[in-house]
Each structure stands twice: as structure tokens, then as C-alpha cells.
Prior knowledge:
By secondary structure, this protein is an alpha+beta fold. It is built from 32 helices and 22 strands. The two termini are 25 Å apart.
Amino acid sequence: xxxxxxxxxxxxxxxxVSTTAGAALPAGVAEGPxxxxxxxxxxxxxxxxxxxxxATQPKTTxxxxxxxxSHQENYGETGMAHLLEHMMFKGxxxxxxxxxxxxRRGMDFNGSTWFDRTNYHETFPASPDNLDWALAxxxxxxxxxxxxxxxxxxxxxxxxxxxxxxxxxxxxxxVQRMLSSAFEWHNYGKEPIGARTDVERVNIxxxxxxxxxxxxxxxxxxxxxxxxxxxxxxxAIAKYFGPIPRPTRTLPPQYTxxxxxxxxxxxxxxxxxxxxxxxxxxxxxxxxxxxxxxxDALTEIMTIRPAGRLxxxxxxxxxxxxxxxxxxxxxxxxxxxxxxxxxxxxxxVKAREALLATLENVKAQPITQAELDRVRARAQNEYxxxxxxxxxxxxxxxxxxxxxxxxxxxxxxxxWRNVTVADVQRVAEAYLKPSNxxxxxxxxxxxxxxxxxxxxxxLEAMLKDYKGDAPIAAGESFDPTPANLEARTQRFTLANGxxxxxxxxxxxxxxxxxxxxxxxGDERAxxxxxxxxxLAASLLQRGTAKRNRQEIQDALDxxxxxxxxxxxxxxxxxxxxxxxEKLPDTLALLAEVLRQPxxxxxxxxxxxxxxxxxxxxxxxxPDDVASRALARYDNPYPEGDVRYMPTxxxxxxxxxxxxxxxxxxxxxxxxxxxxxxxxxxGDFDPxxxxxxxxxxxxxxxxxxxxxxxxxxxxxxxxxxxxxxTPDKANxxxxxxxxxxxxxxxxxxxxxxxxxxxxxxxxxxxxxxxxRQREGLSYGVYSSLEPSSFEPNTTLAVEAIxxxxxxxxxxxxxxEELARAVxxxxxxQEVGDAKKAILQExxxxxxxxxxxxxxxxxxxxxxxxxxxxxxxDARIAAASTDDVNRALRKYVIPDAxxxxxxxxxxxxx
Length: 908
């Protein structure tokens, strides 16, 4: 899948939202069904349009989904749909490189390919101009993309690099191997990434023919979601997409049905790695099937932590360190799969036997109502979360389109409400059986017990009269300027010193986000405490004086809430979300988790095993090797200091030697509200929440004082380090340069702009040279990581690449750094970067979860949104000369520390 890392956004005025009620439809446009605020239209050329207007957040998403993926590929064409996804960013006869244009406009964009669909989307601050450009661009590249040989040649190494990054992941490759064994004839046996030889030898004429066949209006669905004028948008769609003629070709039928599996199959994957993995895959049903949700529930019942059956039978018994499962919803009958991670010195055979016995023993141990109620609550919580965001809803609808019809999304939600224990029991007995699994050896069976065959599903008849629920309540049209945010924010301090910030605003679905951060100890008190602190933070959600781990999770699901807690020696972070009516209960649960942890011994032992196995599993991963080596190089701090980076062996030894008593002691000494910040953002009543916060946290005292651990500038000697990671198809570059600057320095805005142009965006110098022109890396970036305290900021560079391209990558990187410093950046580059950065900052302020984190940060630093406005103004005021002066002052090309990790010893 294509995934640019840098997210660039555009900030323009909010468009008013209207509906088409009472308005005449444009010529050639027919209106279809409306489900919960989503209305379908059809153009005369066959294009399906879904409009989902909502003014809650001032941003808009345009998504185009084509009903084509690896399912439609022919012999010798594997990976063609995915390769075409990349080519669609190369430009049209009227437009230059579209990725560059999207980056220049500050839009958050992406594209992805799966079995039954390819989709493209861009999200941007709501404005008629932005929407008009996005619609015109999508209409243009639908039928006018170049798909040129020159672009194919330059992109080929990028696609290969993406393949190689997947080759480093044993789990990903094991899934590929199991699919190829489970599906004998159907194209679901071939993942969308494709065969390397097919991709490398692709015929440009066949690729162009594939494009002309499937990239047509009658094979596409256009979704517009968010803040926009529906009438004006429908007119613009008719203007840009309407003139595209309806194709005269007929799409080739997909008529291959996979036979019912008639015996268990086994796959063994042998390659370099550390932790072991065992999995079981079972054929199931199309997503449109009435049984799909029952199978989804079954998957969750097996894997939910910590009450899942596989979790109890493998993790609790120490046969495995982690379990997971997935139920793929596809257009044709798909698969459900389960995996268990096994430590390198543990028995894979015992884990496999326990995995299969647990899965296939449902008849003897029937599904219970409590198990179904638990996973149903979680599923309903997830549907509420998605429906509260038009952008996430657009993505969800795209997946349902791939499975046959966008309305399946709502129908599945309804099916979750109505699924019964009998349904789940029935599908478990029908599909979880030896003859239907891919994991073991072939054993002849005179009387095979086979899963039922799947007949065709008449989607049109099934959905003809479907109405869905009433649309959920939309929020207010909110202005995310620093001035308005500051005017809305209420700040106060609890009796113990905890700083609180409340930002009430009406949100879609009445959602609320919260964030809490506690600060711990000082440099001397925290010496040697990092591992026990991290373990203590991870144990908080695993038990309290009142509830066990599962009861905590059940309470969160019933409250339509989520909670995530993490920490290290210096701080503990808690973040989550809920809805207005459940906020009091969720805050009470948060206080219970933080103030009354039980630190269960059995969970501590599990956590230790999970951590050690995770480190073992990443020991030979180039990314982990490179980042660890970079952090250790010229590190001046002694072992045990919170600023020290241990080796993998040291870290595993520390985890294995940690004690529950030490973790409890750390939390007792350093946890509390005296040195903490809490922020709540969203739909809530501040007058009701304020006294509750005082009651929950106001008397929570911290036993030991806090003084921030200083982090002064450490200037490392320039060095190139190579780390060998044998048999890894992908290599990693991790580099950095320490700069004497922080986020309040006079030069910081100009340096931020310089970084954006250099490598911080998808139209940056590094991206254009290394990815676009030379195709050496799927992803190459630079980033600026500023301190808010000491003048100690890191300029980082990173890239993934094929080991044999090391020399070319180094040359390109060195030349681009030198060219930037020597020649500087142009006024056009600086102007585009300033606009994009300001748009990125504006869009970030539309995300309530970001706002909650930012408010806790402001409280700790003694800042307000006035600081944000000041930074915006300083970025806007920076001149081209300012940017080039900052670049030359701080960026010294030959002063970087660069670590290259990969299999460089193997000859290409």
C-alpha cells in the first residue's frame, strides 16, 4: 500500500453545509437512497456519488474507490493494481506530478490497494477552492493519467523497496504463504503486492490496458464527506465528472469460485528471525453474508484480551506471549485467521496444539452469552466512533463498497445488534474444523467433514428496502483559530496542584477526548527505574482494587470509551475518549485505574514475557537495530540513567530481573496529582465536570518531589556506522544532527520551514530526488524534533532502501544536502512551505485528541494558544533569506551521524 509519511494540510475558511433538499439536481444526476445522512447519486456515465455533509469539523475528505484490486489481475499481472496505484500520482496530460501538487497544497492524502478495491483520498481544511481543485484533479486522473514508461521505470525501485520492507516481517510473509495454500484457484491466494517478477517485468501496454479497463466512471464510487455545500458540490461533480463518457467496454466477469477445502493443509516458513509464530486459517463467507458478523464476533471472542479463549489457553498458560485474530471481509468468500507468538525457547508444537484445540473445541465448550455481550459492546463502541467522524466514515464506506455495496456498513452494524449466541455457535461448528484449516499436514479422510459451500447473494434484493437508523447528531461548526480556542478554554488548578484545562465544544456523536500526564522524580531518584516505571504504567489497566483486567475493559466498552496508558521513568500518560453521557463514569474509572491499581502478579509475569519476546522479535529488524545504534553512539550517560539507551541484551536482562515489588514501590513513590496536567476536549458540561475532577483527583498527593531531568545538547562526532542484519531484504538509514536551538529560539520558524523543504514533505528535495526521480526508497524523510526547554533540537533523516542501493542512496543524500546549503531554497519553495506548514498546524487544531494533548503540554510549559498564534505569525513572516540563513547556520552536511542497517554483506 502507498503511504506517504508526511501529512501536509491546507487552512482556508470553513464552507457552509447545506443539503440538496428542495434544490433541482444537475442534469444527468439521479438521486438514490439516503442512509443516516449519506445520500447516493448516480451520473449518466455510471459514476456513483455518496455525499456525507457534516459541519462539525472544518475539513473535507474526497475519496474515490475503484472496484479493482488484485482479484481482477490475470496471469502474469500480479501486483498490477498496486503498481497502477503508484502510477496514478505521476500526473496527467494537463497536470504535473500529482503527489507534488497535493503536497504543495498542504493536503493530507493517501492511496491503497486491496483484493477488491483501490482507493485514493485527500483531506483538507474546508473551502470551495480546495474542494473544487480536488474534484477536478480526481476527474482528470480517472481517465487521463499518463501511465508512461519513463514514470514506470522511475517508480519500479520504489515499489520493489515497498515489497522488501514487507519481506522483513515474518508475520506478513506467513500470511502470504498460508493464503497461497488455502486458495488453490481464486485470486485471494495472491496478496495485492504481487510477485516480484510480475512487477519487475510488467508490460507497459498491458498496464495501460488495465487502467483503461477499470478506471472508468461506471466502476468507481466518489465519496465527499465533511464540511461542504452539498448543492454546490453536486454541481461541481456534474461539471468535472459528467463529461466523461460512459465506457462502451464490458467488464470481464469474475467467475472463479474456490472449491470447499477437503483436508487440512500445512505451511512451514523458514527464514532469519527471532520469535516463533503459529497460525490457523479457515475459509469463511463473503462480507455480505448474514453469517459474516457472527464470524466477526467469534474472532473477537477467541482473541479479546484478557478474556479471550486463546488468550486464556495460550498466554495465561505461558505457551504464548500474544495472540491475535482477523476476519477478512471480502466480496467473495474470505478467511478468518488466528496467530500466536511463541518465545524462541518455548515449544511451538505445544502452542500449535493448544491453538487448534481451543479453536475447534467450541462444540464441547459452547459460546456463552457473556462472551458475546462483551464483544458486541466493543463493536458497537467502534461503530459509534467511526460514525462520529465523516473522514473515518468515508474510509469505512470505501471498504463496504469493495465488498459489494456501501450500505453494508450500516447493515453490519445492525447485524451486530441482533447476532445471537446460537448464530456464533453455529458458524463456529461449521467453519472451525480440521478439514477447513490451513496449518497442519495433509491426512487422508474417507468421510471428510466439510464446511458448507457459499451460494450467490442478491445484494440488490437484500438492500432494496433497507433504511438504517436516523443520522446521528452533528456537532457545531467550530472555528479552530488560536484566538477562538483560547477563548473557549477554561484553566484552573486543583487543590493538590494538578493543572486542568477544559475546552467544551459540540461534536459529532457527542464525543469527548481526554489526556492526563503525570511527571515523576528527578535525575537522582529515577536512576535505574526506567524498566520498573514502564512496567508499572502498563499494569495499571490490568487490575484495580475493584475490578480485574477484563472487567476494566468491559466497563470501557459499555461506556463507549477507550483508555490507553503508557509511561517511563519520567512520566505516565493516560489518553482516551468517550461520549458526553458517559464522561462522568469514564473519569471515575480513570481515577480508579490510576489511584487504586492492584498490580496483579500473574499480569506482571505475562507483561515481562511479552516485553522480552517483543525485543527478541525485533533483534534483527533493521529499523530497530539502526535506531538503537544511533541512540547509543556517543551517549554520555551511565547505564541506569533515563537518558541511556541499553542494548537489546541489557534491556531484556533488566526486564527479566524486574520485580513486582519494585514496580509497586515506584508507583507509590512517584504517582500522584501534584505534578500533573489534565485536559478534556469535546461535548461536555464544564460546570458538572469541574467539581467531579476536584473530588476524583484533588486530594491525590505525590510522595516525592519532581524536578525535570535536564536534557542538554550533546554534540556527537560525525560518523557513518554500518550494522549487518543478515537475510533482510530491506535496509534502513537513521541519521541525526544535534542543533543548539529550541522551539522559542528566533531561528526556529525559519529552520522549520527549511526542514519542510529539505525532507519534511512529499514534495521535498529529498523526496523528489531519492523517491520520485531515482526510485531508491519507498520512504525518505527529514524531521525536526524541537525541545521546549534546553537549546537541544534534533534534525533527523531516515529512509528505507534495498541494500544494493546503499551507494546511490548515500550519494543522492549527500548531494541534496550540499546543494541545499550551497544554493539555498527559492522564494517559490519557501512560499509553498510556509503555506503548507500553516495549513498543517490549522488542521491539527481541528483534531480534538490533538487539542487534549496540546492543552496538557501548554499547562506544563505555562503556555496558551497565544503561543501557537505567535509561532504561526513568525512562520508567516519568515523571508527566503531568513530560511536560507537558518539552513546554512545549522545544517552542516558532513556533521551528521548516520547508521545504515541491512544485509550489505550479501552480494546482489
